[in-house]
Please model this.
Amino acid sequence: MVSRVSAERTMTDEPADGRFWSPVVRDGLAIGLATGAYGLSFGALSVAAGLTVAQTAVLSLLMFTGASQFALVGVLAGGGGPIAAAATALLLGSRNGLYGLHLSRVLGLRGWRRLLGAHLVIDESAGMAVRQADGATARTAFWATGLAVFGCWNVATLGGALGAHALADPAALGLDVVAPAAFLALLAPRMRTAPAWVVALAAGAIALASTPYVPAGVPVLLATLPALAWAFAPSGPGRAGDRSGGTAGGGAAKGGMADSAARVLTAGAR
Amino acid sequence: MIWAAILGGSLGCYLVKLAGLSVPERVLRDERVRRAAALLPVALLAALASIHTFGSEGEVAFDVRGLAVGAALVAILARAPFAVVVLVAALVAAGTRLALA
Model:
């Protein structure tokens, strides 16, 4: 962990006030450390689900977007094929693309720096960048948070994977319910609008109702149909509810990735 | 097969991130794109949560997992941190199984 900190020293842009150890860097590191808890759970779940330690570690290195990784492992564990698993991860990662609306302007990345920076576009780095008042601080926030989370996420994933690997029977320890609990915790902060509730309830019902009739992994993809219909329908009742941004849902897991995501989405809409 | 899912899924997720930094702004400003990106995670996470709580080899089953995830939901509503939420679920599942065994 200490070596990560020194790595950031060289890779982070100069903060606005000229000092490296600025509050925004400290916040980024704190978020990175907090992500460790997700990483441990993910690593343990992934190995309990049947992936090897190597597969788990590579997934965290290459995919590096938590919810998609949980989803990919979840679909595979449920007997789904590689295409359904990859498609679910991709659809869940689609929100990362939207962060570019704000980030591309603030970061102004070109060439290889854009290729590198793109890998660090996640809920946390985007959420921290969007909250800063000026461009220089936002850039520092993005790189500091992105690199801190990348380091902690991968170290924690490996730790969780090795820990679960050492256990004889992970299922006996209740690791099979880590996945649904994790999905609920990631979902909770997003339940802020009426359309979110309609979409969530419809998705849950469709997934369960179709389970006996289609191959594993497919129910989850079918469950996206109401969301897509709602998003791409020319017009519809209650459309205004999309932008109300109420907080009635509440119950967010503290400091969750999805929470900062929701904030970025709301901020971008203004 | 697992490696195919890992490499294919990772490539897809990376290209989405890169596209976000590369496509013209008006694409991302499109209201339909914004709605889809906001609602897709909701649909997928809700579907995954319900399948992993009540799905069992192509059947719908009500068992210990429902109890454990219910306990996790209580933890979420009590604003417990992520690690506590998953720990509560695992402990309730393991404890109940031990008691029933």
